[in-house]
Amino acid sequence: RRDVLVLTPWLAPIVWEGTFSRDILNAQYLQKNLVTGVVTFAVEKYWFFIEGFMTSANKYFLAGHHVNFYLFTDSPEKIPPLQLSPENQLFVIPVHNDSRWQDIPSCRMAIISCYIQSWFRHEVDYLYSLDIDLQLLAHVGVEIIDALVATISSWQVTPQHRDKAYGTRSGSPAATPEGQFYYTASFYGGSVAEVYELTRACSRGVMQDREKGLGAGGQHERHLNKYLLQHRPTRLLSPEYYWDTEL
What we know:
Elements: E1 14-15, H1 22-32, E2 36-42, H2 50-60, E3 67-73, E4 88-94, H3 104-118, E5 126-130, E6 148-152, H4 162-166, E7 183-191, H5 192-211, H6 219-230, E8 235-237
Parallel strand pairs: 1-8, 2-3, 2-5, 3-4, 6-8
Antiparallel strand pairs: 5-7, 6-7
Helix pairs in contact: 3-5, 5-6
């Protein structure tokens, strides 16, 4: 494709439909006997999205490959019966509104890093974090697999909306300079080791913000972008992979 940017200045590929051969990548991936994990959170009213997310992810996310889904929820009793492919597994992890996880949306980085250290690193080779209200409409395959993977925000590629993507409190260590890629926190991942370092660093940044009284929403996304400015992703996914329906 020549109509889009397919390589970053630091020579990381930007994955668009039509820039890869899924058959070749599938054959290479199968030889390595890898397991990929998906982390998602369904707390409070978001339990409503569980069935739609799991049905579409079971059908389209790394179809034919072994995937472990790790679902954090405060409403495990509301999970409907789900029919998963034989190669997929669902692990439901209850979370409670106790002193440890008072604000789950802004604590998700800390939760992920904690569970990587205690559990996920023993079961999966790669780990991706996806929002529960995401609905997959087409195949998302092994073209997403790399050491550190980020998805370009769809708000960045629409000039009239760039302020939303770049808007951040100047007092926060997560301020991102305009002109850089801006990434969504709704879809990121990579090797377990890299995701552990990312989530640990971002959770520290969120805590620093709180100590300074900068407790605005969207902290995890701003700190994700700060981290990826200092630790360049090895692969970028185009906005095709997570398009904001508001646009």
